[in-house]
Amino acid sequence: MIFGMSSRFLTVQDVRKKYGAHEALGGVSFAVAKGELFGLLGPNGAGKSTLLSIIAGLSDATSGEVQFDGRPLNRSARLMRREIGIGTQDLAVYGELTARENLSFFGKLYGLKGQYLRDRIGVVLESIGLVDRADDRTSTFSGGMKRRLNLGVAIIHEPRLLLLDEPTTGVDPQSRNHIFERVRQLNSAGLTIIYTSHYMEEVQTLCPRIGILDHGRVIACDSRADLLKILGGTITLTVVKEPSATAERLAAVPGLCVDSTIGNTITLVGNDVVAALPAVVNALREANVEITELRTQEPKLEEVFLHLTKRTLRD
């Protein structure tokens, strides 16, 4: 089964990868649409790095197929691999080179040269906020600046698909926000991005659709909103009087049920509490029920992840 959308730009079909007797990927299938910002989550050892290596064309699957824009992608597809950018978890920058020299070096590896390369270096330096440090050795950079340069190296050749593996590891909040903003800008400009991170809140904030990989298999792949509905949320309200009668009335609201009534506080649970909230307010108004407090709480992606995998992201 393919998890994904009809307008497939990248298709991963029943991909398996074995290292001797060990099966790192056990039949992974999903699709990513053109221009999508797709999140990929999985605990350590789930097979994310192996999968990204195959998608990048750096490693071949034991079986199954990856298609990129309708064409088979593997290690022998050298020209296609030039259309992919990789922001690696381990920094791919050289400390003895300046930021400009790093971008020039990697640009030439992708076949860029002359004025076009010089122009691209200028554009990228501006976009990653390193114009004023362009001619300083990278060894003098902070961790956040190196991460921003690592992103620059990945996009110097204007790829059509960008793979970001833990792009904010070990960075300060300012650099993290800079990387977030740049990722959003790149995606808004039409770049297709697959984003993996150990920081669950990053993926929840950035990615409208998310796949969860565990034990070498995709165990869930859906929109962020639908994934969060797996656990549902709560509406908690406190009324001035007659909580039992109020709870009875609220139990009739579609999509909600009463979880508890403690004193004058009523807790409701449902799959989409934000959508149900107007109906709750209307029911209270019609019953002339006076409330002193009302709050909603939606589940976090981390809670859904733990529910599905039975372990934390770093296990």
Describe, in plain words, how this protein is organized in 3D:
The protein is an alpha/beta fold and 315 residues long. The protein has two domains: 8-228, 3-Layer(aba) Sandwich (Rossmann fold); 233-298, Alpha-Beta Plaits, CATH 3.30.70. 35% of the residues lie in helices and 29% in strands. It contains eleven helices and 14 strands. It has helices at residues 48-55, 78-81, 99-109, 114-127, 143-155, 173-188, 200-206, 224-228, 243-250, 273-286, 301-309; strands at 8-19, 22-33, 37-41, 63-68, 71-72, 84-87, 161-165, 192-196, 209-214, 217-223, 233-239, 256-262, 265-270, 291-297. The strands form three sheets. It has a six-stranded mixed beta sheet with strand order 6-7-8-3-9-10, sandwiched between helices. The chain has a four-stranded antiparallel beta sheet with strand order 2-1-4-5, with helices on one face. Strand 9 and strand 10 (217-223) form a beta hairpin. Helix 3 (99-109) crosses helix 4 (114-127) and helix 5 runs parallel beside helix 6 (173-188).
Chain-wise SSE layout:
Layout: E1 8-19, E2 22-33, E3 37-41, H1 48-55, E4 63-68, E5 71-72, H2 78-81, E6 84-87, H3 99-109, H4 114-127, H5 143-155, E7 161-165, H6 173-188, E8 192-196, H7 200-206, E9 209-214, E10 217-223, H8 224-228, E11 233-239, H9 243-250, E12 256-262, E13 265-270, H10 273-286, E14 291-297, H11 301-309
Parallel strand pairs: 3-8, 3-9, 6-7, 7-8
Antiparallel strand pairs: 1-2, 1-4, 4-5, 9-10, 11-13, 11-14, 12-13
Helix pairs in contact: 3-4, 5-6
The oligomerization state is: single chain
The CATH C-level name of the largest domain is: Alpha Beta
Q: Please mark out the parts with pLDDT under 50 across 5 or more consecutive residues, or reply none.
A: 1-6
Radius of gyration: 24 Å
Biggest sheet record: 6 strands, mixed
Please tell me the total number of domains.
2
Output the number of helix runs.
11
Instruction: Determine the CATH topology of the largest domain.
Output: Rossmann fold
Strands of the largest sheet, in order across it?
A: 6-7-8-3-9-10
Strand content: 25-35%
Q: Based on the coordinates given, report the CATH architecture of the largest domain.
A: 3-Layer(aba) Sandwich
- The proportion of residues forming helix, as a percent range, comes to 25-40%
> What's the number of extended β-strand segments?
14
Q: Helix/strand-derived class?
A: alpha/beta
Shape: elongated
Distance between the termini: 27 Å
Mean pLDDT: 92
